[in-house]
Amino acid sequence: MARAVAVATALLVVGCVGFIAMPLPGALLSREALSSLVITDRTGQALREVLSREDGRSVGLAGGRIPPLVRAAFIAAEDQRFSWHPGVDGVAVARAARDNVKAGRIVSGASTIPQQLARRLVPRERSWWGKAGEALWALRLTAHLPKDRVLLEYLDRVPLGNSTFGVEAAARRYFGRPAERLSAGQAALLAGMARSPARRDPFRRPDAAVAGMRGVLARMVEEGFLTAEEARLAAETPLDLTPAERVFEVPHLTTALLQRLPQLGLDGATRIETTIDPALQAAVEKAIIEELRGLAERRVGEAAAIVLDNATGEVLAYVGSSDFLDEAKGGQNDGVRSLRQPGSALKPFAYGLALSKGFTPSSVLADVEVHLATPGGSYVPKNYDRRVHGPVRLRAALAASYNIPAVRLTDALGPEQVLRVLREAGFESLTQSASHYGVGIVLGNGDVTLRELARAYRGLARGGVVGPVKEVRAAFGPAGAPLRIPVELEEHRFLAARPVELLTDVLADEAARAPAFGLDNALRMRFRVAAKTGTSRAHVDNWAAGFTRERTVAVWVGNFDGTPMRGVSGITGAGPVFARVMSLAMRGIRAAPLVDRSRFEAAAICPLSGERAGPNCPGALKEVYLPGTAPRHDCTMHRSDGALDVGPAYLAWAQAEGLASTSVGAQGRPGSRAGFILPADGDEFLVEPELPESAQAVPVRVMAPAGAKMLELRTEDGRRIELPPPFVTRLPAVAGERRLELWAPGGSEPLAVTRYRVR
């Protein structure tokens, strides 16, 4: 046994000696890894200078020279026997072992400067085996390098707080001067930070930093580097700390770039030139702050915006929040890259698919109540205004952002096809299956980023071709050599060009938007803009995105903590911010026409049926089509006898609207049976505590029997409510199980009964 132990020990010693004798790897001490990084805007103006980074890059000491005071301070603080030990200090190891055994826990360390350097160069796990490996590397470094080189490599890499590595970087960061001009007190303060940079941060914990400095000065006296008088004067001399670094420019973008450097293949860059237009960036930042002041009463706390150049895909402005340093509002969250639900902002992509599948701007979509079977159960979509509008032309349905027609359209096209188009348009965040999202995908029930939204809308601006968003114009390595910038996605088509041109015409149609949002809404500008807003459930998120020929803008407003806004929709929340940012983005630019309408075929159509206007139609409007797709038949809804033949699909809607002359033509005639259109039996209504009561009433629509002049509603608590034509009203949304009866005046039994739930 003893012999085996002796042999094993001998082999271990031989192995260790062999390891120490091996030459050092050539790239171990690469000086390229000590480069700083400067991020600039497109004009070359610095946005952020990173003197050092978490992975150990720093600014090396000038000329590879170690200032005497720096040498003295760090040797006194970290390794008093540095000049004679072989890399591991046996005296310190024995002392640390004694103290740790006495205390029953680790209270003292024995790491030398070579060991600390080894820890930076070859990181190892914090264990006894890790410490043993660290010691072997320290011995190997000391065996192959002069002591001054070991000290220099250590001083160029030592972590000194605030993401600063190396004495030169720290000297500039804390004192605004090179290391060779540090005073004894300043050098001692940095040396005192080496073991505990966070606990002795001179900006956040000045008292602890000064205490550490005084301790190092005392050890410098003990080691003979300073006299007692010199140490006293150094301790009393002002440190001349520079103010904490002011907020860097375009903080969210530069932070995102720094986090993605390895992914971009730019982790060796010394200079990165971004695409940011400094004048536009400053103007957008100011506009967002001012617009948020006007929305504060509606509990809107934050906003984000991104501006793209359509020709190049370059990001001209990027604002992730109104104030990066506002911790109370979560200002460091990046609203451009955060995943959130976009509401109706995704509708144009479904409508673009429909236009490419043979639908036209006058195709009639049913805006009447529908119950759709989904994997999660029955789904009953509702419009934002809680109304139904009967037969609605595609142009009007999209411009007014009606939900029911959009859901019906998605159901007809297939959710999997709509999801496919969205993914091809660049919405990479939509990773779930089509069955997961269902038809609700068109209403934005999947999380996306504002950056993805801007990229996809730029794709619409380019006729259905999506391309990469570019935040970096150029990047250069340590020797000034240009670096290759990777492309985030290959340019490709996701929708045919002509249908997208028609879609653009719809998105820019102010007259079609007016019935829902008024003529003087936030999207009405001095130049034509194709735009769409979106509001997520419970008013948590507002979106607005749109484009001219030259620029694409996407805006989000809301609260990073998910607090609902108070009665704010996309048109009233994000809309005004979008308009302000788009106006700034187009400043000095003469807007080119969005579409060339002469390329379309025109026809006069009936506003209700979407068919060619006939002699019986009370009015007509002009619609445009792709050549060969205009309707060929006259309107069949308006009859020569003045009756309106809407067919059975719209009969309940027409009667609820009080269209007394309505008939169903040859398919039948209205009967005398009465019933509830809304609320349907089994409907559920969700009360949002942050919204006003007027926005949360339960809508009531009744199909009246022929000839009815007055009906009556009776609630479960005995209340009676008169219901005159057009037999529409609203009831308070009171939580609980509710029963509602429909009566004819003087009747002996109810005409209809419905049950619904409010929660």
Helical/strand content category: alpha+beta
- Determine the number of helices (DSSP H or I, runs of at least 4 residues): 23
What fraction of residues sit in β-strands?
Answer: 15-25%
> Could you give the count of β-strands?
27
| Major beta sheet, strand line-up | 5-4-15-14-13
Low-confidence stretches: 664-672
- Measured as a percent range, the helix fraction is 25-40%
What does the main sheet amount to?
Answer: 5 strands, antiparallel
Radius of gyration: 36 Å
Q: What gap, in angstroms, lies between the N and C termini?
A: 79 Å
Give the overall silhouette: elongated
Give the overall pLDDT as a whole number: 85
Description of the molecule:
The chain is of the alpha+beta class and 759 residues long. It has a five-stranded antiparallel β-sheet with strand order 5-4-15-14-13, sandwiched between helices. Strands 21-27-26-23-24 form a five-stranded mixed β-sheet, with no helix packed on it. Strands 2-1-3-11 form a four-stranded mixed β-sheet, with no helix packed on it. Helix 9 packs antiparallel against helix 10.
Core attributes:
alpha+beta, five-stranded mixed β-sheet
